[in-house]
Design goal:
Strand content: 15-25%
CATH class of the largest domain: Alpha Beta
CATH topology of the largest domain: TIM Barrel
Helix content: 25-40%
CATH architecture of the largest domain: Alpha-Beta Barrel
Shape: globular
Length: about 550
């Protein structure tokens, strides 16, 4: 066990809480979603938690009291001097964020991104100046704890109730999408709502291997399969042919596709015109590049990408006015680089040339709770808000490195697959997220597989189907989490109206946890508890239901 470095009150407090809890670093790591080595560095003062939410999460798992939480928040703000001050602590009576995604990438911590990074540093410095001003102004305020008479930072307003409430709105089937990862034309044999074509041998380089010579055979199979299944299709344009970008770096695909715009945008216009004309009325939407801020997919400049978006939007709308144009995808939104690219694209007018924004919404690691995606979604929304744009958002994929991550066990796969879509529903109002595409259908090499061609759906796929069966023709009205809605801190809930066989709508709630279990009383008028495996249990108002990481539906007959 290490010793906190001299003068680090935060490390001393964390170490004291850890020892008092009797839990090992491995135990705490499992419960806080932080590696045991990182926790050890925090407790020994060798590293500083990136935000107060991380500190709070560790402390709550260790059983910290509310006064101790306040002391920790102040310790985090003042540790290593005013220059390191960050967000002010939450209200001691409010449920502090349990799932803040920490920045644990050493490169991101040690290296500032030009422009964006310096602005962030300025904001942090300004925060330090403001806190210093509070010290000068209110230095006589008394405080109990390890800081003597140090002032208590102001707390944000605490508001109870759901995260959002709206007039009941339909849950559209298309929001339950999957990316097709095969070229067979076979569609999922379990229920899905929409399909997306990428990594299915339908890149531009596949479709136009030589200038002006097209091979539509694979894309025809996929589009025809989607039409037979009644599934709206999203086509992703990306992967410039080698002949159109002679000196550009290659993408990681065998046909030699290039990670760059074409040397002559006339070739781009001609391809988009041929594509939109061929699939007029049969392709619901077009995404104009898979990932725009990853050099393995695109290494051109932002201005060129905006111009490509403008030209493609004009051509597609002329050929097929009803088609939806989706702006190039943006990933890495947990860090300043991703947010900076999104802001640059927005400020250059990119989102004025499309109907929908595309973001890569996924956990940092496949084993992380799906609810951690909400922090990424919030970062995307705030960045767009700063740029003055508010387009509808579609979640369209994951990271290039997903295949390198360890596979989930079967039980966790069921939990994570269903909660992937539920997290999308949770984010549907506050940030205008209207569709989520799971990545991917048809691949064995990913941490979570729903189905491969020629095989039966996995249990995770069948659970996704059951979730959609529950929500078919339903209307969602509210979502919330934890003590704000008078539930345990680890419990999440969304409220629906669900039609019965007579077409009358009855109230229902979906509940789940991001970790652990909780016992909750069932809502009034509840008569049945439904599980994803198809089983049901009768309940009465006043009964208690055990909530776990696997969602359940509580409804009335």
């Amino acid at each position: 066990m290490g010793t906190p470095r001299t003068g680090s009150a935060l490390a001393q407090l964390l170490q004291s809480l850890k020892e008092r809890s009797g839990q090992s670093y491995a135990d705490l790591a499992r419960r806080t979603y932080i590696s045991s080595s990182t926790l050890h560095r925090y407790c020994t003062g060798k590293a500083r938690p990136p935000d107060v939410g991380v500190v709070t999460r560790i402390a709550r798992v260790c059983g910290a009291t509310e006064p101790e939480l306040r002391d920790l928040a102040r310790a985090w703000a003042f540790d290593e001097g005013i220059r390191a001050a960050g967000p002010l602590p939450a209200s001691p009576t409010a449920p502090l964020p349990a799932l803040v995604i920490p920045n644990t990438d050493p490169a991101e911590t040690a290296t500032a991104v030009p422009g964006v990074g310096s602005a962030r540093s300025k904001r942090r410095t300004l925060t330090g100046v403001l806190i210093a001003s509070l010290i000068i102004s209110f230095g006589t305020v008394s405080s109990q704890g390890p800081f003597g008479t140090a002032p208590r930072p102001a707390s944000p307003q605490w508001v109870s109730g759901p995260s959002w409430v709206v007039a009941p709105r339909p849950v559209q089937p298309a929001r339950f999408g999957v990316t097709m990862n095969t070229n067979t034309g076979e569609m999922p044999s379990f229920r899905v709502g929409s399909v997306r074509f990428w990594d299915s041998q339908t890149r531009w380089a596949n479709l136009e291997p030589r200038r002006g010579e097209y091979d539509w055979s694979v894309l025809d199979r996929l589009v025809n399969g989607a039409q037979r299944a009644g599934l709206p299709a999203l086509f992703v344009i990306g992967g410039t042919p080698a002949w159109a970008a002679l000196k550009a770096p290659r993408m990681a695909y065998p046909e030699g596709a290039r990670a760059a715009p074409p040397d002559d945008l006339a070739n781009w216009r001609r391809f988009v015109r041929a594509l939109a004309g061929r699939y007029r009325g049969r392709m619901e939407a077009y995404e104009l590049w898979p990932v725009a801020n990853d050099s393995r997919f695109y290494n051109g400049d932002t201005a060129t990408l905006v111009e490509m978006t403008r030209q493609a939007n004009q051509i597609i709308k002329q050929a097929d006015p009803g088609a939806i144009v989706v702006c190039p995808g943006v990933g890495r939104l947990w860090n300043s680089e991703g947010q900076g690219f999104l802001r640059q694209f927005a400020e250059a007018g990119g989102y004025g040339h499309c109907d929908v924004a595309s973001v890569k919404l996924h956990q940092r690691s496949a084993s992380d709770p799906p609810e951690t995606m909400l922090a990424i979604l919030d970062a995307a929304y705030r960045t767009m808000h700063q740029a003055g744009v508010h387009p509808p958002i579609w979640s369209t994929g994951t990271t290039h490195d997903i295949v390198l991550q360890r596979p989930l066990d079967e039980e966790r796969a069921i939990d994570h697959a269903t909660r992937f879509y539920l997290t999308g529903l949770y984010g549907s109002v506050n940030v205008n997220l209207s569709r989520t595409y799971f990545y991917a259908w048809g691949a064995r090499t990913l941490p979570l597989t729903l189905q491969v061609p020629g095989a039966a759906p996995t249990r995770a796929a069948l659970a996704v189907e059951q979730l959609q069966r529950w929500l078919t023709r339903s209307r969602i009205r509210a979502c919330g989490q934890g003590t704000a809605i008078q539930l345990p801190a680890n419990v999440w809930q969304c409220e629906f109206s669900i039609p019965d066989v007579d077409g009358r709508y009855r109230p229902a709630v979906l509940r789940w946890t991001h970790a652990g279990t909780a016992s909750t009383s069932v809502p009034p008028h509840t008569t049945r508890l439904l599980r994803l495996d198809g089983t049901a249990t009768p309940v009465r108002p006043g009964d208690f239901a055990e909530i776990s990481t696997r969602p359940i539906l509580l409804t009335a007959d």
